[in-house]
Write a structure and sequence with these properties.
This protein has 258 residues and is of the alpha+beta class. The chain is built from six helices and ten strands; from the N terminus they run αββββααββββααββα. A five-stranded antiparallel sheet has the order 8-1-2-9-10. α4 packs antiparallel against α5 and α5 packs across α6. It starts with 24 loop residues before the first helix and ends with a helix. The relative contact order is 0.18.
């Protein structure tokens, strides 16, 4: 017998095989790929949804705004992703196809619940065959509509998807979640939460390991007439300023305690 990997001992070679204790290792490894990426956060407010992404920049030579992790799926749906950016781009393309097919078939925008279900079924299909691998990306989808208000959903590499008030993915997922749990989203507007989202990304960013990063912010809500768009420059600058001053206050209070 060849020397199999000590982690999965041969049961981790294919996405179509269960291990004796009922795990599918390839899905777990895909989750690891997500955990290696910059942090993404989605927050649902009373009047819309906000996305914030820590896009780690590995070289000074990159053009600003390259390899975005926030995308438009349809006019009313936005996506933020953590994990392999190329896999996420593929998923965005699938989601766009689903959204446009629905529009041409039914003459109305695709409900988020329906879109999420279609994309998660697709992701799940990639965990069933030995010839392919699961997607190494977690995607968050958000929308706002007159009937259903704000909605936010997240789909993991396994194809499992839930609706959320606040969700996080990427390397600082647990820290970001802790911060999200302190916020009362249901009472706040996107204008307030875009600052909180920026603060969370700045707070969980690891300056030692990943020096440079770009903060990506987008939103969709009543105030954008249900259109998902990048946050205006002015709002972006204010949110970053708020995040940086919150960081400074934190470090000051840490020094006081010591």
């Amino acid at each position: 017998l060849p020397n199999m990997s000590s982690i999965g001992t041969g049961y981790d070679l294919s996405a179509s095989q269960f291990s004796p204790d009922g795990r599918v290792f390839q899905i777990e490894y895909a989750n690891k790929a997500v955990e290696n990426s910059g942090t993404a956060v989605g927050i649902r407010a009373k009047d819309g949804v906000v996305f914030a992404v820590e896009k780690i920049v590995t070289s000074k030579l990159y053009e600003k705004g390259a390899n975005r992790r926030i995308a438009n799926i349809d006019t009313h749906v936005g996506m933020a992703a953590a994990g392999l950016v190329t896999d996420a781009r593929q998923l965005a393309e699938i989601a766009r196809d689903e959204a446009s097919t629905y529009r041409s078939d039914y003459g109305s925008p695709i409900p988020l619940q329906h879109l999420t279900q279609r994309v998660s079924s697709y992701m799940h299909a990639y965990t069933l065959y030995s010839s392919i691998r699961p997607f190494g990306a977690t995607m968050m989808l958000g929308t706002w509509g007159k009937e259903d208000g704000a909605q936010l959903m997240m789909v993991e590499p396994s194809g499992v998807g839930y609706g959320y008030w606040g969700c996080a993915a990427g390397k600082a997922k647990s820290n970001a979640k802790t911060e999200l749990e302190k916020i009362k989203m249901a009472d706040k507007t996107c204008a307030e939460l875009v600052k909180e989202a920026a603060r969370i990304i700045y707070m969980v960013h690891d300056e030692v390991k990943d020096k440079m990063f770009e903060l990506e912010l987008s939103w969709v809500g009543e105030f954008t007439n249900g259109v998902h768009q990048r946050v205006p420059e002015k709002v972006h600058a204010e949110a970053e300023k708020f995040a940086k001053s919150a960081m400074e206050e934190d470090s000051d209070s840490d020094e006081d305690m010591s």
